[in-house]
Design brief:
With 358 residues, this protein is an all-alpha fold. 73% of the residues lie in helices and 0% in strands. It contains 17 helices and no strands. The radius of gyration is 21 Å and the shape is globular. The two termini are 15 Å apart. The mean pLDDT is 92.
Length: 358
């Protein structure tokens, strides 16, 4: 019931201009768009993108691990399934984005070179280290540790999930033999946080929580339902305002506590969705397109829609800043889902390949 809603929140994360993102554009040497936002607009984006939406990816890690633990497939079967659902779409979508960023640029450079600002910077000139960074987000050249994949930032989730699936037998052994000690360990790694270099500490924490949930049959939803809306809303608001008004902001200990409270809110929300028959049916249907929208929305679709919108409606005040935040995001969700629905009807085999067999 939550899969499509969580992807919607991911799209909100990736279409969010802030003062900090504008400064990064300036630092990169590109011309930034007009951006004039007041405190109200900033807090709206903080509440959605940097607040409640931060629960989306952690919950996906939890659900993936929980389902893996409940199915309890043998390791060879598990790897075969994940090769179809994770590795194959990762390779296919990466190839699509390599063609878009690399092959298409080479083609345009030959046909109409006046439209290319730096024709020398193309895929033929990429070094091995640049290829690794663009596809996986790793920097093996000593310039830092873990980063987001440059070609498609959202695929860090698939990257980390594949790694966690591969090492899952070790994680399950540690959970069985050191249930309390290992839980304390991964919690400390998450809360500090500790840089793991090969995957994000948040991914490890929530994936391990999902394994605990499935392996020990923890009644998570029943427990969450016992928490009142008033209690969880108060905890969330306190942690949210402390994080962004007093505390250290993103990647601080208080921020990670806020993420956990936002996860509880989304888990409680699923019960409300189930009670509404039409909402339940719509959520069930759209869930089948959640991975497709996840893979398609960034960077091409989101970037194109957002840039076109800004061209006609520049962010000259807070109203237009918020208009850009909501309208292009809704358009990206609608267009991306629509493409998935059409592709599934026109060419089901291709849709299944790109959607990981889902």
């Amino acid at each position: 019931m939550l899969r499509f809603l969580l992807i919607v929140l991911v799209v909100f994360i990736h279409n969010c201009y802030t003062t900090e993102s504008i400064q990064k554009i300036i630092a990169s040497g590109d011309v930034p768009p007009v951006f004039a936002e007041n405190a109200f607009g900033r807090w709206v984006k903080l509440f959605i993108t940097f607040g409640i939406a931060r629960s989306a990816v952690p919950l996906f890690f939890m659900f993936a691990a929980f389902l893996q633990a409940k199915k309890n497939d043998g390791y060879p079967v598990l790897l075969k399934k994940r090769a179809k659902s994770l590795l194959l779409p990762f390779v296919l979508w990466t190839a699509i984005y390599v063609f878009y960023y690399g092959g298409l640029k080479l083609l345009v450079a030959k046909i109409a070179p006046q439209f290319i600002s730096h024709p020398e910077n193309n895929m033929l000139a990429w070094t091995f280290s640049e290829w690794v960074h663009k596809i996986f987000g790793y920097r093996p050249n000593g310039k830092g540790g873990l980063d987001l994949p440059e070609l498609a930032v959202q695929f860090w989730f698939v990257r980390d999930l594949m790694i966690l699936v591969i090492i899952s037998p070790v994680l399950k052994w540690l959970i069985k033999n050191f249930p309390i000690g290992f839980l304390f360990f991964v919690t400390a790694v998450y809360a500090v946080p500790v840089q793991l270099y090969v995957l994000v500490s948040q991914a490890l924490f929530f994936y391990v929580l999902g394994l605990y949930w499935g392996m020990y049959d923890i009644p998570l939803f029943e427990t969450v339902d016992k928490i009142s809306w008033k209690e969880v809303a108060l905890l969330y608001m306190l942690s949210f305002f402390y994080t962004y008004k007093i505390g250290g902001g993103d990647h601080s200990t208080e921020h990670y506590f806020m993420v956990i409270t936002s996860c509880v809110i989304l888990l409680k929300l699923s019960a409300l969705i189930i009670k509404k028959e039409k909402l339940y049916a719509a959520s069930s249907y759209l869930a089948g397109f959640s991975f497709f929208l996840f893979a398609l929305h960034a960077p091409v679709l989101n970037g194109t829609v957002s840039k076109l919108w800004i061209r006609f409606f520049p962010m000259k005040n807070t109203f237009f800043c918020l208009l850009q935040y909501f309208v292009p995001t809704i358009l990206v969700i609608s267009i991306g889902t629509g493409i998935g629905i059409v592709l599934k009807k026109v060419c089901p085999p291709l849709f299944r390949l790109l959607n990981g067999g889902r």
